[in-house]
Amino acid sequence: MSTYKLTYFDARAKGEPARMLFELTGQKYEDIRYDFEGQEWPQIKGDRKRFPLGQLPVLDVDGKLLFQSRAIYRFLARRFPGDYYGKNDDERTQMDVFMGIVADIEIAVLPAFETPDAAKREADLVKVRDSTLKPSYEFFSQSLQKAGGKYFIGNRMTLADLIIFNLIDFFLDSSVGLKTYFDPYPDLVKYYETIKNDSPLTGYLKTRKYTPY
């Protein structure tokens, strides 16, 4: 039986979809976390035997290291039963599209976090939501409606849901504190609440450790 060690910061962000996959599949793993603002990580990230790119997350599977968050997600979703990475090429392609869009969103919102001014940061995030990111959020909304409104692919929970839920969660339930960020997309808010309260992830989401990000 394989052993799994997931190393990330004490945060959700890019580590959380992998944790969700472990929880959904009942697979035991070691959840190793470093303080996001602590001194230990800067001192050890240069160890290329443990952290090949000096970045997190890193997944250790029987001593073999995997890195790059989306590669880790795909690996776990393919490895465990449940078709979390899709039942066929069409579903897997859809997931790759969703993951690519989320990656683009992460890049687009990053400049807003360069300012310590909370009011300016919120204004910048709303501005980019209503301009650069509008087609992305509209695409999510339309895709969800076409899929039936509860899940994004195949009327069941897949990796696509974990990625998109995690994105919405970042805005609605973190220190970012933008509770109204998705108000222009009520179907996405309803989707988010359904995943929290009536899905295979509900138990985990209600008991997981709270972190600011």
Q: Notable features of this structure?
A:
213 residues, alpha+beta, Glutaredoxin, globular, Glutathione S-transferase Yfyf (Class Pi), Chain A, domain 2, four-stranded mixed β-sheet
Describe this structure in words.
With 213 residues, this protein is of the alpha+beta class. The protein folds into 2 domains: 4-79, 3-Layer(aba) Sandwich (Glutaredoxin), CATH 3.40.30.10; 89-199, Glutathione S-transferase Yfyf (Class Pi), Chain A, domain 2. Helix content is 49%, strand content 9%. The protein has 9 helices and 4 strands. The chain has helices at 16-25, 40-44, 69-79, 89-109, 118-129, 134-147, 159-172, 186-197, 202-207; strands at residues 4-9, 30-34, 58-61, 64-67. It has a 4-stranded mixed beta sheet, with helices on one face. Helix 1 (16-25) packs parallel to helix 3 (69-79), helix 1 packs across helix 7 (159-172) and helix 4 packs parallel to helix 7. The longest helix is centred in the middle third of the chain and has 21 residues, at 89-109. The two termini are 33 Å apart. The mean pLDDT is 95.
Question: What can be said about this structure in brief?
Answer:
The chain has helices at residues 16-25, 40-44, 69-79, 89-109, 118-129, 134-147, 159-172, 186-197, 202-207; strands spanning 4-9, 30-34, 58-61, 64-67.
